[in-house]
Design brief:
Elements (H helix, E strand, L loop, with lengths): L8 E7 L3 H10 L1 E2 L13 E6 L2 E6 L9 E9 L2 E9 L2 H22 L8 H5 L2 H15 L2 H15 L15
Parallel strand pairs: 2-3
Antiparallel strand pairs: 1-6, 3-4, 4-5, 5-6
Helix pairs in contact: 2-4
Amino acid sequence: MELKFLPHRDVTFQSPLPPAWVRERISRKLAPPSVFRLFRPKEEFVGEVDGDTFWFARARRGRREFPVVRGRILDAPHGSTLEVRIRPPAYPTAFFLVVATLLAAIACMQLGVALDHLAPVELVSLVIPVGFAALLYALFFYDTPFQMDFAEAWLRHWVEAPPLQQPPSAPER
């Protein structure tokens, strides 16, 4: 498992369908993006397909944000290859980065300019901003891997790509 500050996943997989069919199947599942929308579209996802690139996200907004999926459709000898990046949505990520930066600034002010005059008691005051930043990170990104799995499964279903084979687990002793 790889630890990342801002989680994302790069996935490449094969589809038996030709690129034109993959483009058509993905675009059939998407409502066009809109800046201002009074009603939720009948499609579950919004996004667009532009040539050999595509992006989509869930139309529903809320606490458990669905990741943004961006990808390219490449021609392959026996169908198509899809190169996909799955990442959290921009607004919650930007909010987290702003708040984490402010908390880091508070922690630096708690430390003071001269680190050589730092008493052990003052280190306790760092627990609050650092702990709050860790809590905020957990609240924003705790279910991101599960949401990324869900997004990848949707896309694989749309383009009829087989799931990745999981390596066999080691026998228990």
